[in-house]
Structure formats: structure tokens, C-alpha cells
Amino acid sequence: EGAYLSYGMVRDKLYDYDGAVKLYTAGLQIYPQNKDYYLQRGITYTHLENSRQALADFDKAIAIDSTFSEAYGNRGLEKMKNKQVDAALEDLNHALTLDQSGANFTLMGQAKMEQKDYQSALDFYSRALEKEPRSVKAYNLRGMNRAMLKDTIGMLDDYNVAMMIEPQNSNIYIARSQAHMMLGDSLSAVHDCNIAIEKNNDNALAYLHRGIAKLALKDARGTIQDCSKAVELEDNLKQAYVKRGEAYAMLRNYPAAIADYNTALNFNSNNRQVYYLRGLSKIGNKEKNDGCLDLSKAGELGMKEAYDSIKKLCN
Question: What is the helix (H) or strand (E) element at residue 306, kind and residue range?
């Protein structure tokens, strides 16, 4: 009963989310009442930014087992991402009522980070680590949270512990690179991604995040090279297309930028940032009318800056 589940989780770890979904779906055709398949497929859908399907899967898992704390916790986190604060907290608190596990404290910490309540998030991650002192995920997230609190020493301490627990885990270096970016230290971020690539040169996220750091350093060609490698390894990394598009736009290669933004929108047709960026590139490419329509769409989706740009560029 667990074969499809195990193989799906392996695909998840390799960032092959589409492959993981197919395996979980195949498992559900044989075991339609297996709550774990719904939970894991729901989590995978969150990685694919398919919130509607993720929530449907969490609902199904809870319908099968109304005491399934992890399903409540993950549903709560997804609701928090969707700004459904009251409903999110209800689910997250219920998860902790059912089971005060490290995993559920970690999910509450992530939800508090979504709210930008970094001090509360720190407390929940610390409680998670009291329950599970070898949780690399909790150390990584607490390290990132400490970066948001500008606690550089605490951040480095958390990542150092995570590295001692799993010294060959390249994802820890990627997580630390993201924390360095939050602190505005792009060079250190590049260095950490270099180490991640040395440990695993097939890790698409390492190339993606090195590309993001290079973009911050105005190394557009380096970003294009790294993001191209990332999508070669994992072609569903939406952010790689967005960042490569930004790099092309920096070089004023607007047609290439527009093509990348088009691809990114195929993954998520309601991404206001991508409409905004594509609009600017279309205007740069002398497609003013289409560009202004994209800016308008970004504004409709909630981006205030888009209306500021319309005033400057479209009137």
C-alpha cells in the first residue's frame, strides 16, 4: 500500500513535483481511502502553487480521518498563504490540540512567518526543536526567521547545527543562501550556492538561487546561465523563468524576457509580479498597448506599483 507513497516522496525530494503527483494519484486509484496519499499530494500541490487542489486534498484527508493533525496543520498553513487568517489559525490550533508534535509547531511557525510575526515564529520553531532536536527543517526555518529579525549570529548558529546533523545535505546551504539574501549579502549567498553545487551538481534549486544572487549583483549573464541550468534540470521551476526573464530585460533583450514571462504565466496565470514585469518588457519592446494591459492586469491582481507605472508610462 505504501509503494506509490514512498516513490512519490522520493520524486518530491528531487523536485519532480509533477512526477510525484502522478505517483500519488496512481496510488489513490488503488487505495482511495488512504489519507496519507491525499496529505502528500496536497503538500506537493502547494509546491506547484496549486492552492485549490492542495486544499481539496487536505479536506479529503480530514474527511477520511477527522483526527489527522498534520492535514489540519498543512491546510492551516495554506489558508494563511491565502490570507484566510482566522480559518488558518483555527486549523493550526486544532492541529496542536490533537498532537503537539514538532511538525505541527513547525507549521505554526511557518504560518507566523507568513504573517510577518517573526518573534512568534521564533518561539514556535524553538518549541518544535524541543520536541525534535534533530529536525533539519526546523533549524533551517528558524535560521531564516532569525535573518528576518537581523539576528545574524543566531542565524549562522542554526544553519551550523543543521549542517552538523546532515553534512552532505546541499539544501541546507541553499537555505542559508536565502537567509544571506534577506540580509542583503549577495556574495555570501553565491558562496553558499557554490558549496551546494559542489555537494550535488544536479540540484536545480542551487543553480536557481545562485542565479537570483547574481541578479542582485547585476550579473545578468551569470543569472541567465544559472537559471538555464536550473530549468534544464527541472523544467517546472517557475521562478527560474521569472529571474531569467529579469536578467534578459536587464540586458534589454525584451523578446527573450517576454518569452520567459509567458512560460512563467503558464504555471500560474494569476501571478501579478509576472504580469507587471512582462508589461514593462513589452513597453521596452515598443508594444505599449499590450504592455499597459499587462500592467493593468497586475493592478487588478493587487499590485499598487502597477498603477504608479501606468501613470508614468501609459498616459
Answer: helix 304-313
Structural contact between residues 112 and 90, judged by C-beta atoms closer than 8 angstroms:
no
Helix/strand/coil for 11: helix
DSSP percent split of the chain into helix, strand, coil, nearest 5: 80, 0, 20
The CATH label, of 1.25.40.10, 3.40.50.10090, 3.40.50.300, 1.20.950.20, for the domain at 168-253 is 1.25.40.10
Cell matching residue 1: 500500500
Write the pLDDT tens digit of every residue in 172-224.
999 999 999 988 999 999 999 999 999 999 999 999 999 999 999 999 999 99
pLDDT tens-digit profile of 126-167? Answer: 999 999 999 999 999 999 999 999 999 999 999 999 999 999
> Has this prediction a pTM greater than 0.85?
no
Whether 269 and 291 have beta carbons less than 8 Å apart is answered as: no
Which residues of the chain does CATH 1.25.40.10 include?
168-253
